[in-house]
Amino acid sequence: MIGYKWIGVWAGCAALVAYGSLVPLNFQPLSLDEALVRFRQIPDLNLSVGNRADWLANLFLYTPLGFCAVLAGSAASRSTAVKLIVALALFSATILLAVGLEFTQLWFPPRTVSQNDVRAEVIGAVSGVLMGVAWVVGLPKVRRFASHHRLQRKGIALALYTAALLIYGAAPFDFVTTRHELQMKLAKPESVVWMPFVDFELGAVPILKRFLQVASFAPLGWLAASRRRQVAATRIAPAIAGGSAIGFGVSFAIEVLQVFVYSRTSSTTAILAGGVGAALGAVSYSWAISPSSRPPLVSWIIDQAVRPEFWLRAAIAYSAIALAVLLAPYQIVETSSEVARRWSAFSQPPFAAMYYGPEFQSFVNLILKACVFLPLGVCLRAARRRPTGRYSGAIPLVVGLAVGCIGELAQVYVGPHLPDITDVLIAGAATVVGWKATDRWLSRSRLSQASDGGQARIETREDRPGCLSA
Asked: How far is it, in rounded angstroms, from Cα 305 to Cα 315?
């Protein structure tokens, strides 16, 4: 069954890749003979440093397909021959999909077809295969190492999370490779922003970016504080100092690294955001292990968190706040022609608008909008008293789609952001993910409490006189 599961994941990724390769779905008739002639003459473009990120996006697009091919093969059977057959079949299907989609793009302008894209997609698939092999071979070793070094788990987690922040900071990996390219990068006025808060803008996307910057460094501060002695970790001032120090250090390293990434901007505001986020994470850890250090408001929230009605009110309030943020800065649309243009934008195919912008920026905006609706799913699941059933995912899906639809329809009349059906789908999917993640965490907590309770009952019974003879 596990092998079929990974085959299903591969098929789902392939469907998303196919759809993403054809948007905005502008079909134009073309004879097969002419298409074959054009495909034989597809150019090999000389990519500049400004186009390198788009080429890498095609590479990363096919990496999950190669990865899933290996995992599907490894889980398909105990027979090595069957594993190889399944993995090779899915890998071959991935290569055929890449070539077939490039050929199909001839019917869907303004999509461009080039040998560079085919080369990037093949390299991406091969990279996914190598990552899959490393995962299958290395995961058991990592588990054995973690089980034998329990005391070092927090340090390992801290190192891995730091590496994840550095990798994201280097994305989309369009590094400058020559002095001339570095001069081109530094010649852009927005390449390095020295003054803090000069690059701060009002609006939904800028506010969400800064908030996510701060939030992404909170786990770093939490993990760093968890490695300290318990007595020292409960003191607020040292926690703030230690968390901000590691936050400033890692964020400074990221911003220096981004100087050599052509499409990224280095900013002192981001360094400050990293320090503040890590400090908040360290303080949160102190509050978690030392109730006496908590402010009254935090203590009240924790006391109220056991009540489902508190989370229901939180879901309603959070929905209102999310809508208010997404609609900022509230520019009323006054002309009927502009309203008609906005209705036309809302009726475009999903993800069509993302084609016209840089791939990495579109990905970041997608993650930002998803992060807005993840807490809504958390609140909805926490507000439900009984364990969830088989079709419980319909609740967050309906609520997420409804809130997202209200926000996008409001943007028809409130600018400056254009409404997009894609954001409605993201809202529904992200709310479901938040619900499912919370449900899984609650289920594990119940199992852990039940296990601890059962162990406690066994120990109590064995301590009674005569229990062994009975």
From this structure: 12
The CA distance from 365 to 423, in Å, is: 10
- Please name which of 324, 437, 449, 448 lies closest in space to residue 388, comparing C-alpha atoms: 437
Residue 86, SS3 per DSSP: helix
Please give the Cα distance from 20 to 422 (Å, whole number): 12
Q: How confident is the model at residue 468 (pLDDT cuts 50, 70, 90)?
A: very low
Q: Within 10 Å of residue 174's Cβ, how many Cβ atoms?
A: 25
- Spatial distance between the Cα atoms of 289 and 226, rounded to a whole number of angstroms: 10
Indicate the DSSP class of residue 295: -
pTM of the complete model = 0.79
DSSP string, 188-254: STTSEE-STTTT---SHHHHHHHHHHHHHHHHHHHHHHHTS-HHHHT-HHHHHHHHHHHHHHHHHHH
For the stretch 55-93, what's the b/e string if a residue is b when 16 or more beta carbons lie within 10 angstroms of its beta carbon?
Answer: bbbbbbbbbbbbbbbbbbbbbbeeeeeebeebbeebbeb
Mean pLDDT computed over every residue of the chain: 84
Alpha-carbon gap, residue 262 to 267, rounded angstroms: 14
CA–CA distance, 291 with 299 (Å, rounded to integer): 8
Token pair recorded at residue 297: 């408001």
Cβ contact 251:221 at 8 Å: no
**CB atoms < 10 A from the CB of 193, how many?**
18
pLDDT at 460: 43
**For the segment 46-85, what is each residue's pLDDT rounded down to a tens digit?**
777 777 778 888 888 999 999 999 999 888 777 888 888 9
* CA atoms of 418 and 342, how far apart (whole Å): 6
Enter the DSSP assignment of 414.
E
In the chain, the percentage of residues whose pLDDT exceeds 90 is 36
Beta-carbon count within 10 A of 101 CB: 22
Q: What angle do CA 299, 300, 301 make, to 5 degrees?
A: 90
End-to-end CA distance of the chain: 46
Who's near 160: CB < 8 A, 6+ residues apart? none
245-263: string of b/e by CB count within 10 Å (b at 16+)? bbbbbbbbbbbebbebbbb
For residues 315, 318, 320, 326, the Cα torsion angle rounded to the nearest 10 degrees is: -130
